[in-house]
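Reply to dn_fold:

You asked what the input looked like. This is it:
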Amino acid sequence: MNNDFTCDVSVNLPYPPTQPESQNPEYALAMLSNIGSSNSEMTAVSLYFYNSVILEPSYTGFAKCFHEISIVEMHHLDIFAELAYKMGADPRLWTVQNRRKSYWTPAYNQYPRNVRDVIINSIKGEEAAIQKYNRQANTIQNSNIASILRRIVMDEERHIEIFNNMLQHISK
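and this is what came back:
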């Protein structure tokens, strides 16, 4: 149906190096949240992988975009894991709240099947990530981590543009 749909999935700017200024347990926990909470890069990777599978072959162009976006999200996952590790945390697929560790689960995802719902669900996830990363960038007193968060937000904003283009494409 939309084999002609293409996308440029990331912003063409380098990511800052993962060199936190110090080992800060609070910031490490924030990075763990970005790795393995319900609003995390692992959630995005798994959801976009799923979306790429179910949209093929009817929406081949969309499926390819979701696959490529999942790779960008995997890169974000790697960055957050490296930051957490360098700050002394074990970068498993988990989050820690009130000293309790909770492992990531695919149950965090919603799995719509209608193409419009797939796209809208993806937009909501990106918006939640942007809100979370902006909040972290504004409160974390570590310029390297804040710069990384702001750079990742640029990719997430690009993904929303792509998803909005998908919505326009299916409305034609």
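Helices lie at 25-36, 41-54, 60-86, 115-139, 143-171.
Hope that clears it up.
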